[in-house]
């Protein structure tokens, strides 16, 4: 922001004139530069709170603040290792990796996403990914193919893809998911087995109510 190339908005994201989906790159140089700060990005309108209203967990409870313990983006990636005891579990909806609600809701991001380059291997990867496929996915494939593209979930915790997919199944339950949840009760990873058993007991309890 001090370099004058953009603004940090109330949702905590850095924006240039092209919205918040930007990469920052840095160079180390061996020359002196004159500091010119001339941001042309407009500030957030005082009356706007769309990002806050669209945060599913209240993690973004006020401008320029965010509780990472309840942010869905953190909970589905490098935090939140146990959905069965997480109080925000019901509010995480169908997200299985990250959350973009506070950026999607922002008027400064409308029509800002420009697809200039093809994402390498996206079509092939897309065919392999669905909730059902993730729950059944081979661990080598998760580690070797999925993880390098989506590195917020570390390699030694790729089981989280499965617990996230199971979580999404629970939050948007359809009976077609049941056999996959049942099968996950025998997954090789204990986190996945525990999550699947927990969901089955939740479903059984709700059907007996
Ligand atoms: S990423 Fe999602 S959960 Fe996190 S602050 Fe933004 S809207 Fe809230
Ligand atoms: S949604 Fe509104 S308040 Fe939030 S960052 Fe965008 S312009 Fe600012």
Strand count: 2
Please work out how many helical segments DSSP would assign: 9
Low-confidence stretches: none
**N- to C-terminal distance:** 54 Å
Largest sheet geometry: 2 strands, antiparallel
List keywords for this structure.
single chain; 209 residues; mainly alpha; two-stranded antiparallel sheet; 9 helices; 2% strand; globular; binds iron/sulfur cluster
Q: What order do the helices and strands come in, and which of them pair?
A:
Elements (H helix, E strand, L loop, with lengths): L6 E2 L5 E2 L34 H4 L18 H4 L25 H4 L17 H7 L2 H6 L2 H8 L12 H13 L6 H7 L5 H19 L1
Antiparallel strand pairs: 1-2
This protein binds iron/sulfur cluster (2 copies).
Folded structure, characterized:
The protein is mainly alpha-helical and 209 residues long. It has 2 domains: 1-27 and 47-112, no CATH class; 119-209, no CATH class. It has helices spanning 50-53, 72-75, 101-104, 122-128, 131-136, 139-146, 159-171, 178-184, 190-208; strands at 7-8, 14-15. It binds iron/sulfur cluster (2 copies).
